[in-house]
Amino acid sequence: DSSLNTSMTDDHGDDNLPKEVLKTTDKIRDIEFRLINDLSALKEMSTDSQNYRSKDINMLKLILCSGLYPQVAIADEFNNYKRDCDQFFHTKTKQFVVLHPTCVFTYDPDNLLPPTSTKTTSSNNKKIVFSSQHELLVYVTLLETNKPYIMNVMRAPAMQTLFLYASTLETNNDFTRILCDQWLEITFENSETAQSIISSLLLLRNARDLLLQLTLQDLNKSLDIELISKPRTYELQHLLSKKMTEFLENS
Length: 251
Description:
Layout: H1 2-36, H2 39-49, H3 53-68, E1 72-75, E2 88-90, E3 97-99, H4 104-107, E4 119-123, E5 126-130, E6 135-138, E7 141-144, E8 148-151, E9 154-157, H5 158-165, E10 169-171, E11 177-180, E12 184-187, H6 191-219, H7 223-250
Parallel strand pairs: 3-8
Antiparallel strand pairs: 1-2, 1-6, 2-3, 4-5, 6-9, 7-8, 10-11, 11-12
Helix pairs in contact: 6-7
């Protein structure tokens, strides 16, 4: 019995030894990091990098949207954006879908609040909210159980996403009203602004389609021809990236 107890005690001690070593090693590494690096300088660098964060994230979102569109939803105008309350959204094919309980926005619905800088007007008994900050929810999965849920969602700038990826864009004579995919309508107060944005948009969509064509063509070319055509592809890629960034910032 005593030998059995001794054996169990020794094994237990051996199991704990690596954990203690790991904890000690982590503490040593933490001390080394603090000694080697200037924490205040790192904090300042982190703050400076956040100045570019919004632009970069929006660009990344647009790239992701190219693979997920048309899986987008718009918020119901009567949402209260309070925790423990369902926030309703509408897709083209399904009305009154809700966020899945595991979604981060379920716990922090304040992040879904509509833009504060808005101008509201009424036309034909219809409320129109003018803002350059409207957003869509782009989702990966629509899950239907006792309720229809959208899962794996992210926010994306509404106008830019719709204009870049909609299959059809229908307009009135002065471009102040644009219907995207026969579903969502974007309205402009000023026709000159609308025409300027549409002009830039057409160039962007044409450049994007051309870049895709060139990339696919390069896959089927011999090495010699590919070396000649690659610079043109890279140049167009750089130009498109620059213009997409401008489109995000100025729209």
